[in-house]
Write a structure and sequence with these properties.
Number of strands: 23
Structural class: mainly beta
Number of domains: 2
Helix content: under 10%
Distance between the termini: 28 Å
CATH class of the largest domain: Mainly Beta
CATH superfamily of the largest domain: hypothetical protein (bacova_03559)
CATH topology of the largest domain: Immunoglobulin-like
Shape: elongated
Length: 330
């Protein structure tokens, strides 16, 4: 179990059945060519690369950009290493489209047991990269953003849209070769996307210190986000299944990341699967068959879900979630 209540902006492991679910292009990981630390890099070359939070089976940083309106934009962020503190002159680079990176990812994905549909590079008429993708990092800067504007009303969301980027024309710094490319998945925000006041009741794991038969309020400081992963699926932005201890303290289950699928025609919950890799405990999710009205209410935007979590050697954990809609995610 995890005992932290925090909003995590992490990518999700790319497995046979899932794709990353980060809202914006915010990357923050070690640079392979020279990882930041306590060493003195005052005489080392500055390193530049796309960076990201979390882990991925792919060596390519990936995020999901969620379009809510035709005018939505995203910030593509480039991070300079610790050596930037001693940078004496500007670093320049270009964010270029890289078809090879997308082809390579699709090839790796196709070899998985249950591959996702291949990504399709978006036509250049559907987006605009500010300043032609040219970026300047000045002395003292760590993060530089590049805005990407989309013609959201012209995008075909029946396919797996993506943009693959490469850092080119770099001058004044050294390229972190393991973070020289990045892929942006572009998906349409679904009706369930938003922030919620989550109320949870769990039944079945009282013997393991989990609240049993009692409803608890996760609270709104901060509220829980329900994040688009496709037009019909969403995940908690926590990155795990939240719960409460028998004493009423907030907790969560490790090796869990439930994804919820809704039928857009009926608004009913149709599937719950675990996106997290199995750590040996075999934790899985499924809809509670005894509850037939797990659903999204389009009038109130509230969500009511009854589902099961199973684990090797333990009884079934029954989970009842009520998500009270508070508003759109920022």
């Amino acid at each position: 179990m995890m005992k932290a209540k925090k909003i995590l902006t992490t990518t999700r492991t790319i497995s046979a059945a899932c794709i990353t679910g980060l809202f914006v292009l915010v990357f923050s990981s070690c640079l392979k060519d020279k990882a930041p630390g306590n060493q003195n890099y005052s005489h080392s070359p500055a390193l530049v690369g796309f960076q990201y939070l979390g882990n991925s089976q792919s060596d390519v940083p990936m995020v999901a950009g969620i379009l809510g309106t035709p005018t939505d934009t995203f910030g593509l962020e480039v991070t300079l290493s610790v050596a930037s503190l001693t940078l004496k002159s500007p670093v320049t680079l270009t964010i270029s489209i890289d078809q090879n990176a997308l082809d390579s990812f699709n090839a790796v994905n196709a070899a998985l047991p249950n591959p996702i549909p291949p990504f399709v590079m978006m036509n250049s008429s559907l987006y605009t990269i500010a300043n032609g993708g040219n970026v300047t990092i000045n002395p003292g800067q760590q993060i530089v953003s590049v805005k990407i504007s989309f013609a959201g009303d012209k995008i075909d969301f029946t396919q797996q849209n993506a943009l693959a980027f490469q850092i080119t024309n770099l001058k004044g710094a050294t390229l972190a070769t393991n973070l020289s490319t990045a892929i942006l998945e572009v998906v349409q925000k679904n009706p369930y996307d938003g922030i919620y006041d989550l109320h949870i009741k769990t039944v079945g794991w009282g013997a393991y210190g989990i609240a049993d038969g009692v409803s608890n309020d996760w609270g709104t400081n901060p509220p829980v986000g329900f994040v688009t992963t496709s037009i019909t699926t969403s995940v908690f932005d926590l990155g795990y299944q939240p719960a409460f201890t028998a004493g009423g303290a907030e907790t969560g289950f490790g090796a869990t990341d439930p994804q919820f699928t809704f039928d857009p025609a009926t608004n009913l919950l149709t599937a719950v699967v675990n996106l997290a890799p199995d750590d040996g405990r075999g934790r899985k999710f499924a809809i509670n068959p005894a509850v037939t009205d797990s659903r999204f209410d389009p009038a109130t935007k509230n969500i009511y879900m009854a589902y099961l979590m199973t684990q090797n050697g333990r009884p079934t954990q029954y989970i009842y979630d009520t998500l009270f809609y508070l508003g759109p995610r920022p």
